[in-house]
Amino acid sequence: MSSDREQRPPLRKPPWLKRRIQAGATYQEVHRIIQRSKLHTVCQEAHCPNLGECFSQGTATFLILGDRCTRNCRFCAVAHGPVGPPDSEEPHRLAEAVQNMGLRYVVVTSVTRDDLSDGGSGHFAQTISEIRRQVPTARIEVLVPDFQGSDSAVTTVFQARPDVFNHNLETVARLYPKVRPGADYRRSLRLLKRVRALSSDMPTKSGLMLGLGESPEELRQALFDLLEVECRMLTLGQYLQPSRDHLPVERFLPPEAFEQWRDIALEMGFREVASGPFVRSSYRAGELYEGLKS
Ligand code: SF4
Question: What's the whole-model pTM score?
């Protein structure tokens, strides 16, 4: 049942969060390729505010293993509901779309599939291998669910050798029961630690949404915890309420606050940080990766 707090009228969006969708020829072409390939993108399913910009630049983040999730996180717009078996042709079609879109940097994420014995890790690995086969020059970032803490699932994805291993913390520890019921703060940190234990040279990355009611001290602690597990790439963005059924925004942080958090995170020890109201974990992901490598 929703609390009174959740039933209050939503905060008005501040002017810096208003954007116009750009929908030129590249945007239409990306749309067409995705539709024709029968693929899903998190850009569309999660109502990402950057969709116009990213599609117009010829990029997108692919959502594998279906468009329905077995969990029902209170912040996420991806639909929850009955799921089907993994589509064995999806890795091939996705790699083909990467080629057709001319992508040099690909982000692949998935819904959470708690119903599958391997959490969908095998499908991730097949997708990586198929992209490598069809587009050997593409860099690949995976943004994985927590696989219910399964080390073997993490190992399966790791062994397919993505270029960046991303897993979002999403929010601070105290807010987990409210924001991510079914997930566990320490479990997510352990996943990132596990990747580092498998290889010291695979970059790990994580992200948090701000404006869900976290305090500055709690956010600092979360950043500290990420550094403790040797995560060095970070994204910080404004939480936006996808619908009235989702958690309300507690605070809209001004762009300057995001700049300050970027400076703080860099000072604390992160190597690459993207922080801004519209930043999402896949936003300009290729640029963040290039920054790490330069
Ligand atoms: S930020 Fe990521 S999810 Fe959003 S539109 Fe761009 S690529 Fe898609």
Answer: 0.94
